[in-house]
Amino acid sequence: MKLFLVFQTLSSQVRATILMIVTLFMFTCMGIFIRLSADSLPVFEVIFFRNALALLLLLPIIMRTGWSSLYMNKPKLFFVRALINIGGMFCGFTALTLIPLAQMTALGFTGPIFVTIGAVFFLGEVIRLRRILAIGVGFLGTIIILQPGFTEISVGSILALVSALSIAMASLIVKKLTATETPEAIVTWMVAMQAPLALIPAIGVWEWPSLEAWGYLWAMALTGTIAHLCFTRAYRLVDITALQPLEFIKLPFAVILAWVVFSELPGLWTWIGGAVIFASSVYITKREAKTKTSLRPNAGPRETKL
Prior knowledge:
Mean pLDDT: 83
Number of strands: 0
Shape: globular
Radius of gyration: 19 Å
Structural class: mainly alpha
Order of helices and strands: HHHHHHHHHHHHH
Distance between the termini: 32 Å
Number of helices: 13
Helix content: over 70%
Largest sheet: none
Low-confidence stretches: 299-306
Number of domains: 1
């Protein structure tokens, strides 16, 4: 209780930073438990349990905050996010069983790059030379990791890139939802909508989990639920650009945990490529935020949270 009171006295930026670090660590732990679960269960079944068990874990929180906290002001946006997430989860969960965790994490840094490109084609946004160059640098980092022509580009790597795009799109939807929805509603409706979407294909390949698999599934659901709650609260406190530089922490988290659990160490090119992609993503995110701020009426330099 005292720790919580101390936490509440901290500035919004410090609280958001702490929440984001916890988020990134928990998401990395979730990746470990996803792979362990998928060793004995079909991927769609793992996705179903990821959402169904998380819904059970959220019930005590819902009962404490009240059912009114689940009211949706923008139900269509909730459903769109669920559809994007379920596709991204299938790609990401499958990729985790095919490529090293560190490589999956490094390729995940491409999210902001894909979002910027998508905004050009689907939203008609105009990007300037510096951001175009940053996108090129980001793809150079991807090439460094994948090394086409020297090694075969695996299905797992392609799925990891698709998953990164899905996660980035879902993150932007979450940021939009935080303006009108409660963190409890955002997280609860995500798993409530995704569980039946995953159950339909899971029925065709169903296998009952062993006792050990149940342990991994519950651990996966717990770490994922904590991550999403912290992630949503962090995005309510500060602008997304203020948290972007923290993303690179995921790589050392992934390296350490993968080494401890799977005796798996990444190659040098994964580190170099991941750093290049990450630097490009941070630059793109900050340039977009600065551009949007400058377009606001009477926007002064102090309005930019950079």
